Amino acid sequence: MAKIIIPTPLRKFTDNQSSFQATANNVGAALSELTETYPGIKGHLYDDQGQVRQFIKVFVGEDDIKSLDNENTAVETATVISIVPAIAGGCC
Amino acid sequence: MADIIITENARKVILKDAEQTYPHECCGFFYGTDEDTRTVLEAIPVENTKEENRERRFEISAKDYLKAEQYADEKGLTLLGVYHSHPEHPAIPSEHDLRQALPYFSYIIVSVKKAKTVNVLSWKLNDQGRFAEEKVINQNNPFDVDVFLSSYQ
Q: I need a surface site. Which of A27, A56, A77, B117 has the fewest CB within 10 A?
């Protein structure tokens, strides 16, 4: 089980819910539960190959899952998963 | 064109950051309410973590983004968007801005020339995934005693 924090810009795809309670025991399965419940968010999280999009990071607590076990990272009841969009740009 | 109200305190923070960070791009988040009209009540600068070309690029760390969401939650405010500056360029979003733009967020851009603000525009993605300009309304802070008194002088 884990709590997934939905970033503000994607809450329009989760009926304005700021979090989602997943019952899965790893990050990938938890995110799958989220996208099954709210299919509109899927295209913003995954690319056409089913990989997490380049401009999206997934954190467990304060750690990027890339520094853990990626989507196989285990989660527990108290685990908080955060979806973090990359913020960048520039004038030219 | 949708309206976005920027209160005086938030505007001051954004412009000060844009001018002091010149010739580099500044960046930060802003918070407020999202009802019929968006109202920006507070802006908070964050570090431009881009390691090079900061005069024409900005990047915000994932940890600062997480903090911004937590701050909004704690304050009971909505994270409304991201501001950044365009040193020596107009306040119009570039292809780089568009590439990583997110739905829902407002993007306030400050054009700065020679460390002075030229103008401030706000943009938001439309349903076609293109930037549409929002009409910026500058608002004095309610209950600002100095502003209240100055109107009688």
A: A77
